[in-house]
Amino acid sequence: MKGGIFVLSGAGLSAESGLKTFRAEDGLWEDHPVEDVATPEAFARDPELVQRFYNMRREQAAKAEPNPAHRALARLQAEHDAPVYLVTQNVDDLLERGGAREVIHMHGALKDALCATCGHRWAAPMVMDIKDPCPTCGTPATRPDIVWFGEIPYHMDTIQEALEDSDLFVSIGTSGVVYPAAGFSQMARSLGIRTMELNLAASGGRFDEVREGLASVVVPDWVAEILGG
Question: Any idea which residues are catalytic in this one (predicted)?
Answer without folding.
Answer: 107 (proton acceptor)
